[in-house]
Design brief:
By secondary structure, the chain is mainly β. It folds into 2 domains: 2-65 and 429-762, Methylamine Dehydrogenase, Chain H; 66-427, YVTN repeat-like/Quinoprotein amine dehydrogenase (Methylamine Dehydrogenase, Chain H). It starts with a helix and ends with a strand.
Length: 763
């Protein structure tokens, strides 16, 4: 993750300089997972070598760790002890696919579902079961650059897709909830985008097909519809929120069998904001809606409203003691005097926990609920098939992870909430490859991170020319490995850091059989981190990075390994730059190394710089920016000879940054533009002075296909690269070339819920 750690350091440094010592810059692969991008098919140019023989890139996927995971977004019970919950899970391919689970009183079981053939991402957000053998589920799926609504039906034996029409002019759509009053009458609600605004969407099922209906929206307002309940064939109530230029207020709409009409919805006194997320109706004169509102202090509190057939009225809802936020995301009513609302609440420490409240016809009361992981747990749906039984569904974050979720199901019976074991299908775990080094075409080592167990342990894999195998590293608390260098087929050195609030630079050595930790010169408690390493021989390695902090002063880190021990080196700081760091290093020989990095200039812009090691001392070198570029960051450097280095990275709005050092000065190189979008380079490897390969990605229309460029000593040329199937973006983060026609690149392909390590071979 060459780029992500820099962003973490810089953002934290500017926002809170005095806390810089506590910042962990070894970013997890999940941070990149939160960059949501629409899939656009990758394009590229064909590259050929001399004589016309085609040299192509091909995928070579490393071993992918697996992890049981899933999310439940809604639940419905067609009969007592017969319930269906829906959501999504991650497949072994890394794609997010729909998930449906069936509860029959004793255990949950995963059902076989279907996804649209062209879906790159699919998820179900609402479900309604009219009987124990008839359910309809809705959601959305992505295909290409579009997102569209999704509907599936279960007939007691299997799930089948149902075609959905789109409103005229819709560019995208999604469905959030559905309610079926019979097997031939269902109403689904959501939204669609017609280019200039997002409008409410209603789809109506008549037993044979879905049809689109219109909900009126007042001029100057935006209406969001999130839930619907239809107690009879001709009565439906939908709820959500209305936004205008000054406020967001709770909304409710009534359908009388022929048209939708907005209803007046009151709000708690001095509410700054209100939103309804769930609704349950027992008849034409009995509905309960749930959601949240912000009080005069801006604290989010649980909200419940009651429809008596004529008007809506606010009900008093309790909030957990010390809650900084609370929401009732869903509600189910067995009768007008028996309702249950579920959601989540946050305490002063920012932990999200489950929340359930019960209405007995007079007042709402909080019910104790289990919380598997107090760092992040929520309930998204609830269904009460009897007065004494309720089933709730939701999600909790796996301990030690970010954005890796597990299904959660609770059952309320005998006046107690208890957890029931919802199923988590096994899919691909989060994984990332950030650095690769090859001593030969059949001897490569790649390192990164995995989400296969707590704490994002390092992922290290070995490639023998035909297959990948996982290696085991020596352990250390909160170990993060950022770079690797292999001077021979039986020797590699990997560097990084250990610890969180207080870190220490760490190095590990592979002797051809096993990995072992090496003592570093900076020592424990130094807040030192290695980001780059280069080993020009079996007995010499140079590691660089961040040396530590004293308030806002930052030291650069450089350590030399002489085959026996690591020793600390003095590195001059660039003048006028705050928070400088060294991100990469390359040694053409044991007596000549070049390290590159960047720092914040006076105008808060990233400024690249370089340092040169002559065998005894480090000296600072200025790096000019390309014409028109106002900032630049380095990610990698490669020195094929004593008098030549090529460094790559990003140059602000210019896209990719490439610089050439000729032994005396640095000068910008013009990078070939990709077919579309802006290039970004993360890795480079030069096997000779006129033979370099740089890798990264290029971005257009929100996508990020992989990018590889070849430099022949005079000019760069874009090469055609493959991309992992249906990934939102494919970023190659590192490359190692053992000859003019053989390279191995490693990186990460991102999906909505996961990152998947992947590799490409050229030659």
């Amino acid at each position: 993750m060459v780029r992500s750690f820099r962003a973490t350091v810089r953002t934290a440094a500017v926002a809170a300089a005095v806390l810089f010592a506590a910042i962990s810059v070894a970013a997890s692969p999940i941070a990149a997972a939160q960059l949501q991008r629409d899939l656009v098919p990758a394009q590229g140019l064909v590259s050929t070598r001399g004589g016309g023989d085609a040299v192509v890139w091909s995928l070579s996927d490393p071993v992918l760790p697996t992890l049981a995971q899933g999310q439940l977004n809604a639940v419905s019970c067609g009969a007592a002890n017969v319930c269906t919950a829906v959501g999504s899970t991650v497949a072994t391919t890394g794609q997010e696919i729909v998930l449906a689970e069936r509860w029959q009183g004793s255990a949950w079981a995963v059902q076989a579902t279907v996804d649209p053939d062209d879906a790159t991402v699919a998820s179900l957000s609402g479900v309604s079961c009219h009987t124990s053998t008839a359910c309809t589920a809705v959601g959305s799926y992505q295909h290409g650059a579009r997102t569209d609504g999704l509907a599936e039906a279960w007939n007691g034996k299997l799930w089948t897709l149902q075609p959905l029409p789109l409103p005229q002019g819709a560019r995208s759509s999604s469905l959030s909830a559905v309610s079926c009053s019979s097997s031939s009458v269902c109403t689904a609600v959501g939204s669609y985008d017609e280019g200039t605004s997002t409008l409410p969407l209603v789809e109506r099922w008549n037993g044979k097909s879905w049809g689109t209906e219109t909900i009126p929206v007042a001029k100057g307002q935006a209406l969001t519809v999130t839930a619907v309940s239809c107690p009879s064939l001709k009565i439906c109530t939908a709820v959500g929120s209305t936004t205008n230029s000054t406020a967001e207020t709770a909304s409710a709409l009534r359908w009388n069998g022929s048209a939708w009409k907005a209803q007046a919805v009151p709000e708690p006194p001095k509410a700054q904001f209100a939103d309804l997320d769930g609704v349950a109706c027992n008849g034409s004169s009995s509905c309960t809606a749930s959601g949240e509102y912000d009080n005069s202090n801006g604290t989010g509190l649980a909200l419940a409203e009651r429809w008596n057939g004529t008007t809506w009225s606010v009900q008093t809802t309790p909030d957990p003691k010390g809650a900084t936020f609370a929401v009732l995301a869903a509600v189910s009513c067995w009768s007008p005097i028996a309702c249950t609302g579920v959601g989540e609440w946050a305490n002063l420490a920012g932990q999200l926990m489950t929340l359930a409240e019960r209405w007995d016809g007079t007042a709402w009361a909080i019910q104790p609920t289990p919380t598997p992981n107090p760092s992040e747990t929520n309930l998204e749906g609830v269904a009460c098939p009897s007065v004494s039984l309720c089933v709730a569904a939701g999600t909790y974050a796996l301990q030690g992870f970010h954005d890796v979720y597990s299904t959660l199901a609770l059952q309320w019976s005998a006046a107690i909430w208890a957890r029931t074991p919802a199923v988590n299908p096994v899919g691909t775990a989060l994984s990332d490859l950030a650095s690769v080094s090859c001593s030969a075409a059949d001897a490569c080592t790649a390192i990164g991170e995995t989400g296969a167990s707590s704490g994002y342990p390092p992922l290290i894999e070995r490639f023998n020319g035909s297959a990948w195998s996982v290696q085991k590293m020596a352990t250390a608390p909160d170990l993060a490995i950022s770079a690797v260098s292999c001077p021979g087929p039986h020797a590699c050195t990997a560097v990084g850091s250990t610890g969180l609030a207080t870190t220490a630079a760490v190095a590990e050595r592979w002797n051809g059989t096993s990995w072992s930790l090496q003592p570093t010169a900076s020592g424990a408690g130094s807040n030192a981190k290695f980001y780059g390493v280069s080993c020009p021989s079996l007995t010499m390695c140079e590691g660089v990075g961040l040396g530590g902090t004293v308030l806002v002063s930052t030291m650069l880190l450089a350590e030399l390994w002489n085959g026996t021990a690591w020793t600390l080196q003095s590195v001059p700081l660039p003048k006028g730059l705050s928070f400088p760091l060294l991100s990469a290093v390359s040694c053409a020989s044991p007596r000549e190394c070049v390290a590159v990095g960047d720092g914040l200039g006076s105008s808060n812009q990233d400024v690249p710089f370089a340092e040169k090691w002559n065998g005894s001392t480090w000296s600072l070198e200025a790096v000019p920016l390309p014409s028109g570029a106002s900032s630049g960051t380095f990610s990698a450097v490669s020195c094929p000879a004593l008098s030549q280095c090529v460094a790559v990275g990003e140059a602000g709005s210019n896209g990719a940054l490439a610089e050439l050092w000729n032994g005396a000065n640095w000068a910008p190189l013009s990078v070939a533009p990709p077919p579309q979008g802006a290039p970004s380079l993360s890795g480079v490897s030069c096997n000779a002075q006129n033979s370099c390969t740089a890798v990264g990605e290029y971005r257009y229309v929100g996508a990020g296909p992989s990018l590889a460029e070849r430099w022949n000593g005079k000019a760069w040329a874009v090469q055609s690269t493959p991309n992992r199937f249906n990934a939102r973006n494919n970023q190659l983060q590192s490359v190692s070339c053992t000859s003019a026609t053989t390279c191995l690149a490693a990186g990460t392909a991102s999906y909505r819920q996961s990152l998947i390590a992947f590799a490409e071979i050229w030659g």
